[in-house]
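Entry — protein

Goal — C-alpha cells:
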Amino acid sequence: MSAATVAAHHSSDHPSANLSAHHGSAPPTATDPALVRRAVKAAALGNAMEWFDFGVYSYIAVTLGKVFFPSGSPTAQLLSTFGAFAAAFLVRPLGGVVFGPLGDRVGRQKVLALTMIMMAAGTFAIGLIPSYATIGVWAPVLLLVARLVQGFSTGGEYAGASTFIAEYAPDKRRGFLGSWLEFGTLAGYIGGAGLVTLMTALLSDGDLMSWGWRIPFLIAGPMGVIGLYLRMRLEETPAFAAELEKAETARPKVPLREMVTGQWRALLLCVGLVLVFNVTDYMLLSYMPSYLTSELEYDETHGLLVVLAVMALMMVVQPFAGALTDRVGRRPVIAAGCAGFLLLSVPALLLIRQGSLAAVGLGLAALGLLLVCFTASMPSALPALFPTRVRYGSLSIGFNVSVSLFGGTTPLVVTALIGATGNMMMPAYYMMAAAVVGGAAVWYMTESAGRPLPGSPPSR
C-alpha cells in the first residue's frame, strides 16, 4: 500500500463527506484472511478479559461489599462497592487521552499489548488484597487503586481493539468481523459470571467470604499472559503502516487539539452512540444481577443463571447480527435497537418484576436481543466516524468520556435513584432516556457499511 492511497481526510471534521473519493481512485487493498483471523482473536481476547473482570465484579458485588465495606446496611455496602466500580470509569478518559494518541503515533499493536499487561495486573492485584477485617481502611483504598489501574488501561482498550479489527477487515465484512469483539465481551462476562455462580452454589457463605471470592480475580494472571502472547505476534494494521509511509521517516504526531476540535462533529456522534450502547449494556450485564438480588429479593443463584442464559443467547445471535449490518447497514440496526428500548423497556421491566422464572427470563431476553443491535454494530460503526490519522485517539476520547459519564455510572446512579424515589421502574426510564439520545445520533450519522474507512483505500 503506497502513501498516495491515504487520502486527505485530515482537513475535514466530517470524514464521511470524502468517502466517495476512495471508490475507483485507488486500487483495493487485498486482505490476508489468516492475518485478519489472528487480529480478530487477539483483539476479542482483550475485550473478553476486560469483561471477565466486570462479570466477576458485578456478580460478586454483594460479597465484596461485606469484605471491603463492612456496614450495617446492605444498600450502603452495595452503593460503596458500585462506587469503587464507577471510580475506575472516572480515569478512563485519562487513559484514553494517553493511550489513544500514543496508538496513533507508535502503532495500534504496541499500545494494545501494553493495555493487556495493565488490565491483567490490576485484576490480579484485587485477588491479593487483604480484607477490611485484616488491614482496616487500607483494604478499600487498595481496592480503589487496583480499580483505577484497570480503568486507566481500559481507556485504551476498546477503541484500540475496534480500530485494529476495522483496519484489518475487508469493507464488505467489517460488521461481521467487528461483531466478534463483542462476542469476546459476552464470552468473558459469561466466564466471569459463570465462575462466580458456580462458586456461589458450591461454597458456603463463610468460604466465599474468606477466600473464595479471590479465585476469579487471580485467574486474570494466566489470561493476561495468553492475551499478551497473541497480541505480540500481530503485525501493525495496513492503514497505520500507510500513515507511517506517508510520514516517511517521522512518525505521525497529531496534536490533541486536532483530535478534539478537528473532529468535533464525529466526537458528538460518538458520545451519543456510545451513551445508548453502554447505558443499556451496563444496565443488563452489570446492574441486573444485583437488582434481582438486592432490590427484588430474587433467589441469587437462579437470578444469575437466568442472566447467563440471556447472554448465551446474545452470543449465538451476535455474529448473525454483525453480518446483517453488512447487508442492510449499521444505521437501520442501531435505529431498531433505540426504538426497541424506547418502546419495550417498561414492559420488559414489568415482566422482570413479576418475579417468576419465565417472566424474568422473557423480560431479560427482550432487553438482551435489543442490546445485540448495538453490540453487533458499534465495533464497525464507531471507527468509521474518524480518519486513520486520528482514529485511535479521537475514538478513545469520545468513547471513554461517554462511558465514564453515562455507562460505568449506570449501576450507581440507578441504585441511588431507586433509593431516593422508591420507584422500582427507574432502570426502564433510564434506558428510555438513553434510547432518545442514541436515536438522535443515528439520525445524524452517515452510513459506513460496505465503504472504505475514512483515510484508507477500498479493502477486499
Remarks:
- Residues 264-295 form the longest helix (32 residues).
- Residues 1-24 have pLDDT under 50 and may be disordered.
- The chain has 22 helices and no strands.
- Residues 186 and 311 are 6 Å apart (CA to CA).
